[in-house]
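Run log, item B.
One chain of 357 residues. Sequence copied directly from the ordering sheet:
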Amino acid sequence: MVGQRPIAATDIRWMRAALALAARGLGRTWPNPAVGCVLVKDGRTIGQGWTQPSGRPHAETEALAMAGAHAAGSTAYVTLEPCSHHGKTPPCAEALIAAKVARVVVACGDPDERVSGRGLDLLRAAGISVTEGVLTAEAEHLNAGFLKRVRESLPLVTLKLATTLDGKIATSTGESQWITSPEARRHGHYLRATHDAIMVGRGTAEADDPSLTCRFPGLEDRSPVRVVLDSQGRLSPTLKLFSDNAAPTWHITSQALGLAPDARIAPRAALEYLATKGVTRVLVEGGGELAASLLQADLVDRIAWFRAPSLIGADGLGGVGSLSIEHIVDIKRFNRTETRAVSVDLLEIYERPPQAR
């Protein structure tokens, strides 16, 4: 870009390392962002950290604790603007100043009104050199859930689909186990670990009696909050969601949202409610009607679609219910951003185009 100084290769290298650390916190730091920090001195890492469960300690605190007195004169690579307000932890900007860090490189700003520019101002006022905008797009993509909650009071929504090639999730009799391979199902459990909440509708809860827990090897303790939408509160308390104590379950009814007992829950209202509880990332796993209602309301940000190399046919159960679309101009469009083989299956990641948001 004309007039903009090119980003140094070393800054990109260390910021990538910080982003990799930040990703470790996805699904565990809400309502706080998942942040990574790397302290570098004389070309080597002297401290590193990422935001810990429930958002504290912060990444910078962890990295500074590892570096100790060696932090003086170092460069800190941080994926999000260091906080400047006193909350449950002291401001990270002040911690970096106290440690006599010489330079801070930041990927993206924090839109939280308590921070937004103030963290960087504190650093500069203390004589610390600040470099902004290193791998901004990558950092904003990683923390898209946090950013959306701050800016729009909504969490990021990922719709997970596991279907045949023709988009079916079950036969005409409802048989569905198993359409995709064990490897694909294991990757689906990994997705659960990276989200704050996993959401299903009443029909899926009744038909499948799912556990909705993370059973990815080594991440069994990272099950998200289980959310079930049940307008009239008719689900049986004997379902696993309510009886297995494997993870918290939020049973969202019309009355819980302050609506009339017989009112239907609008998907936006449910998501706004989750945002007030601090949820930043929601994984939607079923069923077809819930998926359709979210798509109709343009509330799906990403799709993780596992496709098995098989066909069921027109009498099978579709992964997405009716969208009532009559004209091509009204179809829901997404950009494919990733394709990968998962054993015999294919995983495709789609994102809603920016102009559709």
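Observations after the first pass:
- The chain has a mean pLDDT of 93.
- The CA atoms of residues 104 and 290 lie 44 Å apart.
Flagged for discussion on Thursday.
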